Fold:
Amino acid sequence: MHIPFNKPFIPWLSFRFMIRGALSGTIAGNGRYTKKCHTFFEKRFGFAKVLMTTSCSDALEMTALLCRIEPGDEVIMPSFTFMSTANAFLLRGAKVVFADTLPDVPNIDPAAIEQLITPKTKAIVVVHYSGLACDMDRIMDIARRHGVFVVEDAAHAIDSYHRGRPLGSIGHFGTFSFHETKNIISGEGGLLMVNDREFEKRAEIIWEKGTNRASFFRGEVDKYGWVDIGSSYLPSDSVAAFLFTQIVRFDRIQSSRKKVWWNYYGLLKQLEQKGYLKCPVVPDFATVNGNIFYITVHSGETRDNLIAFLKTHGIHALFHYLPLHSSPYFIDKHDGRELPNTDRFSATILRLPFYNALRKSQVKFIVDRINEFYSSKSPSTDKYLSPVS
Ligand SMILES: *Cc1c(COP(=O)(O)O)cnc(C)c1O
Structure:
């Protein structure tokens, strides 16, 4: 048996749309399929304005431009995230200030944000890890009181909600990723959500190399020119055509992924009761969107041994983020604060295989192997029996 970590869902329809798009004569950005994708996201989730990008990293870079981040501005974000969250702001000269996560959920701790706010703080970036919502009521309240921007890195969080509101629609800006490891995919790809109409026009300008080309095509100006800084953040329409297939299949994709998530949860809860490991904690304001399934184990050593054990059974499990604050690039720029929850999650999170087509029997096989790992009475595994704190 070989169970990979991820198996991208690529139906034949993807190629039909890509070919149809190409035969129509336009494959550059902002074509027919890009518009179809935009319409879907605006209608389905009620986002005020969306723009497809070549990646979530690019969408994050656009948010840094939209917040007018300048050298010396401080941006607070979790250390337990992908480097793109930080890169986007470092590229504008920001000082990135890393906050610790909560003890039970690997999401940014609002109390830590509050402590790190200074007069130089310009933005707070939150990451809804594995699609589980951050505490947006508290975070938006802090942002309002201090007059700072909130950017939601919702790379994991499509079709997930905070008290009924779609993630990515709550802060000033939100970003999705369509990288092949996310819920819906286009290989590389992303989406920017602009939730405040005030920034809509500038977002379009930044998206198209600093030009007012979008206004020109709507007939609002009679020539288009260079009016601001920007870049080429829009993807080819072929990428949008590929993504559109995923949109056509959206409900089916989401229902299979949520099923996989709850299958894991149901079976692993039993191992949690034995004290072997911990399942994700779903806050009462959050929802599950079937992005990834992770467990937390007792120690880093247990995690690495469990990954190795599963590998001997053909199961490909993975660790997740190395803390950014102690990464080779950042360690000498960090202010030295300890981020214990970040370090603990980084050492002990294990991500299990997760994809649309993962069958219930395979999930059971994986959980049985985990159970076997813990219940083996060999002296080398005895120490893993201690309860997870
Ligand atoms: C995947 C991911 C990104 C980057 O997405 P790309 O589309 O690959 O640029 C950013 N932030 C988080 C939290 C991610 O998981």
About this structure: The mean pLDDT is 96. Residues 55-57, 81-82, 84-85, 127, 153, 155-156, 177, 179, 190 surround pyridoxal-5'-phosphate (CB under 6 Å).
